[in-house]
Amino acid sequence: METTERLEIAALKIEGSIYTGETSSAAANQFFLAPGDTARRIRLMQTAEVGFLTDRGRFVSQVEGEVIARSAGQSLASGALSQPSTLP
Description:
Low-confidence stretches: 84-88
Strand order of the largest sheet: 2-1-3-4
Number of domains: 1
Helix content: 25-40%
Order of helices and strands: EEHHEEH
Mean pLDDT: 86
Strand content: 25-35%
Number of helices: 3
Largest sheet: 4 strands, antiparallel
Protein backbone atom coordinates (compact mmCIF):
# COMPACT_ATOMS: atom_id res chain seq x y z
CA MET A 1 0.00 0.00 0.00
CA GLU A 2 1.40 3.36 -1.05
CA THR A 3 1.61 6.05 1.61
CA THR A 4 0.69 9.68 1.04
CA GLU A 5 3.62 11.85 0.01
CA ARG A 6 4.50 14.50 2.59
CA LEU A 7 6.49 17.72 2.60
CA GLU A 8 9.68 17.46 4.64
CA ILE A 9 11.40 20.85 4.42
CA ALA A 10 11.41 24.17 2.55
CA ALA A 11 13.84 24.32 -0.35
CA LEU A 12 15.33 26.51 -3.07
CA LYS A 13 16.57 25.11 -6.36
CA ILE A 14 19.31 27.20 -7.95
CA GLU A 15 21.22 26.01 -11.03
CA GLY A 16 20.34 22.40 -10.23
CA SER A 17 21.50 22.57 -6.60
CA ILE A 18 19.00 22.38 -3.74
CA TYR A 19 19.33 24.34 -0.51
CA THR A 20 17.06 23.54 2.42
CA GLY A 21 15.86 25.12 5.64
CA GLU A 22 12.88 25.26 7.97
CA THR A 23 11.67 28.22 5.86
CA SER A 24 12.57 29.51 2.40
CA SER A 25 14.52 32.32 4.12
CA ALA A 26 16.59 29.74 6.00
CA ALA A 27 17.21 27.90 2.71
CA ALA A 28 18.38 31.19 1.17
CA ASN A 29 20.79 31.63 4.08
CA GLN A 30 22.29 28.21 3.28
CA PHE A 31 22.79 29.34 -0.31
CA PHE A 32 24.56 32.52 0.76
CA LEU A 33 26.76 30.67 3.27
CA ALA A 34 28.18 28.38 0.58
CA PRO A 35 31.57 29.44 -0.81
CA GLY A 36 31.67 31.51 -3.97
CA ASP A 37 31.30 34.97 -5.46
CA THR A 38 28.71 36.99 -3.50
CA ALA A 39 27.75 39.23 -6.45
CA ARG A 40 27.09 36.13 -8.58
CA ARG A 41 25.01 34.61 -5.77
CA ILE A 42 22.86 37.74 -5.60
CA ARG A 43 22.20 37.48 -9.35
CA LEU A 44 21.47 33.75 -9.13
CA MET A 45 19.06 34.29 -6.24
CA GLN A 46 16.75 36.05 -8.70
CA THR A 47 16.42 32.77 -10.63
CA ALA A 48 15.73 30.56 -7.60
CA GLU A 49 12.81 28.15 -7.72
CA VAL A 50 11.06 28.21 -4.34
CA GLY A 51 9.44 25.02 -3.13
CA PHE A 52 9.83 21.99 -0.88
CA LEU A 53 11.53 18.63 -0.62
CA THR A 54 9.17 15.72 -0.05
CA ASP A 55 9.68 12.57 1.98
CA ARG A 56 10.34 10.86 -1.37
CA GLY A 57 13.27 13.19 -2.13
CA ARG A 58 11.44 15.16 -4.80
CA PHE A 59 11.77 18.93 -5.20
CA VAL A 60 8.28 20.36 -5.80
CA SER A 61 7.09 23.91 -6.49
CA GLN A 62 5.12 25.92 -3.95
CA VAL A 63 1.91 25.24 -5.88
CA GLU A 64 2.46 21.47 -5.97
CA GLY A 65 3.61 21.63 -2.35
CA GLU A 66 0.29 23.16 -1.30
CA VAL A 67 -1.58 20.30 -2.97
CA ILE A 68 0.65 17.69 -1.30
CA ALA A 69 0.32 19.40 2.10
CA ARG A 70 -3.48 19.44 1.88
CA SER A 71 -3.57 15.79 0.86
CA ALA A 72 -1.28 14.84 3.78
CA GLY A 73 -3.12 17.00 6.32
CA GLN A 74 -0.13 19.28 6.78
CA SER A 75 -0.30 23.02 7.35
CA LEU A 76 1.99 25.62 5.78
CA ALA A 77 0.91 28.35 8.23
CA SER A 78 3.63 30.75 9.37
CA GLY A 79 6.08 29.31 6.84
CA ALA A 80 6.65 26.14 8.86
CA LEU A 81 5.47 22.65 8.11
CA SER A 82 3.32 21.00 10.70
CA GLN A 83 2.15 17.47 11.20
CA PRO A 84 -1.51 16.60 10.97
CA SER A 85 -3.43 17.07 14.18
CA THR A 86 -3.80 13.99 16.35
CA LEU A 87 -6.64 15.55 18.35
CA PRO A 88 -10.02 13.81 18.11
